[in-house]
Amino acid sequence: MDTPAADRLRLTEIFLSVQGESRSVGWPTVFVRLTGCPLRCQYCDTAYAFHGGEWWEIDAILAEVARHGARHVCVTGGEPLAQKRCLALLEKLCDAGYEVSLETSGALDISGVDPRVSRVVDLKTPGSKEMQRNRLENIALLTPRDQLKFVICDRADYEWARAMVAEHQLANRCEVLFSPSQGQLEPRQLAEWLLADKLPVRFQLQLHKVLWGDVAGK
To answer: What is the pTM of this model?
Structure first.
């Protein structure tokens, strides 16, 4: 039976794809998907990463990332920050010269993340069924290098997210992203709401799903 060592992380997959979301959308990106997540959002599209995976030494992860030859690296999950050694991986990726982003649920403390990393924090809406897990203390830690994402399931989610943007002046802290929940809200409807309210946020779709559908490893 494998036992975790100080320089190991449990991974579900490492793969090369086109970044489908966030500020670096469209760039060839190596995705490092860590295993495990303490949340259970009702719309989760990576539930296969909740369990299983394999233990990788951090140096082996860096070697596999280098093999793909891309400048952008995205560490994701699951919830990557649920593994403490994720912080060391992020630091080493930055030291190696990559443009690094971290996709995190926002339920865990982001203060220890290397400042060179672009933190993409997913603030959970009521429709996610995990809103109570939001660690609102993270908001004060956000910088212009970071991004804050809302996945919108319906009009009630939109109204909640719009109020959060106004209450916390989120657009003055970092880039704010609104995404429609796939299969629950028509993308055009969300775009029309944003335009009508002139919100200072970026509308986004999951480009990788447009290209390849909802499949693992893409």
So the answer is: 0.91
